[in-house]
Amino acid sequence: MIILPKKTWWNKAYSFDNIPMVNIIKQFKNPLIICLECGKDWGWGNVLSISYLLEPQTKFQLFPNTNIKQIPDTFTDVFFLNASETLQDTLKKEHDWNIALVFKHSQSLWKLKSSTGNK
Fold first, then answer.
1. CA neighbor of 50 nearest in space, from 63, 65, 69, 31
2. Alpha-carbon distance 28 to 12, whole Å?
3. Nearest Cα to 71, choosing from 110, 30, 118?
4. 15-71 pLDDT per residue, tens
5. Rounded to 5°, angle at Cα 92 from 76 and 77
6. Is 13 helix (H, G, I), strand (E, B) or coil?
7. Pick from 4, 14, 109: which is nearest to 54 by CA?
8. Of 34, 45, 37, 14, whose CA–CA distance to 107 is shortest?
């Protein structure tokens, strides 16, 4: 069967964006992936798919509604999966952190911008 070796196919549309997002994340040495709203619209299946495609040492923070106080300096880059406008506003208001969109199709990937005092 032709579709079995394919990473994505028309009938795998739900996770079609995972590979382009993984290709972006893989460019960084020690990333942290945060998904505070995974249980809503995005689904845990996509998170598992992404984790399977990344290096085993890649760290994830997946706790819904977690208040992020600080991000350890051990991570080279920090990504957010499907960050809502509410989450973006919260990050800006509570921490003065800005995130930039690095990929968007049906799903989105955001990266914490570097600035003084944070990543």
1. 31
2. 27
3. 118
4. 778 899 999 999 999 999 998 877 666 677 888 889 999 999 899 988 776 677 778
5. 10
6. helix
7. 109
8. 14
- Please state the φ and ψ torsions of residue 9, each to the nearest 5 degrees: -155, 165
Tokens 């739900």 found at: 14
CA 11 to chain centre: 23
Give pTM, 2 decimals: 0.81
Question: DSSP H helical segments within 1-119, as ranges?
Answer: 18-25, 44-53, 85-95
pLDDT band at 107 (very low <50, low <70, confident <90, very high): confident
Give CA–CA dist 12/24, Å, rounded.
20
Residue the block writes with tokens 């028309």: 10
Q: Which amino acid is at 55?
A: E
What are the b/e assignments for 49-78, b being 16+ CB within 10 Å? Answer: bbbebbeeebebebeeeeebeebeeebebb
